[in-house]
Specification:
Largest sheet: 7 strands, mixed
Strand content: 15-25%
Structural class: alpha/beta
Bound molecules: guanosine-5'-triphosphate, magnesium ion
Number of domains: 1
CATH architecture: Alpha-Beta Complex
Low-confidence stretches: none
Helix content: 40-55%
Amino acid sequence: MMTSVCIVLPTHNEERVLEKNVRAIHAFCIAALSKYTWEICIADNGSHDATPIIAERLAREFPQVQWFHADDAGRGAALRRAWSESSADILCYMDVDLATDLHALPFLVGAIRDGADIAIGSRFITGASVQRSLLRECMSRTYNWMTRHLLRMRIGDAQCGFKAINKKAAKELLPLIRNTQWFFDTELLVLAERRNMTIQEVPVQWVEARDRKRKSTVRIFRTIVNYCREIWRLRRSVISH
Ligand SMILES: Nc1nc2c(ncn2[C@@H]2O[C@H](COP(=O)(O)OP(=O)(O)OP(=O)(O)O)[C@@H](O)[C@H]2O)c(=O)[nH]1
Ligand SMILES: [Mg+2]
């Protein structure tokens, strides 16, 4: 039987890019994931624009596209639900703004097929390239420094919105993750490292704000405060034991 892949797209008020980018991902998967069966799941929560209407229309048009709208807020909550409900062998997610060039997708999926528990897009390893604002670059590097030193993480890019995990690892880790927002990814990786799971880093081409009309969903100050609080919580619960 063919290996199955579920690609989750977390969305929050993405009416400007959703249709265009889902079409691009769908066309890319037809060409690049022909060795797999695959599905795309739009995991929406908290949107108060046309995102749900567009998602429903896309799901009607394409048999491989599904969607849900959840009330519980946060990107992590949406990912957890989508991954838990899927029966696919390989579970992925990617930011719907397509900041990560899609060409890395077969490598991400291939890493799991070849035995990794988790595969993550990485912007800081050989072969990667990044175009983004100085502010975001500094934030990202500071964050990485903190995860390395305060959480003793070995991998170099916890927050790239482009990841995959195998079904078994997801089953084990998802119930343990407490954060339901942006810190979800870091918590997933810290828990995986503590269990000596294999995490493969895949270099990506990252372009922030490919679409000028799209606004960021990140509230920078609030997110930084949350990250600090969560790093502290996780440090106390996993590192000190
Ligand atoms: N389901 C869900 N998705 C969310 C939520 N907040 C953000 N997202 C999605 O998470 C992904 C990443 O959001 P972005 O706004 O691109 O975040 P970013 O890449 O850090 O910031 P930019 O550089 O401004 O793009 C996008 O697909 C968003 O739609 C949320 O509360 N729920
Ligand atoms: Mg983005």
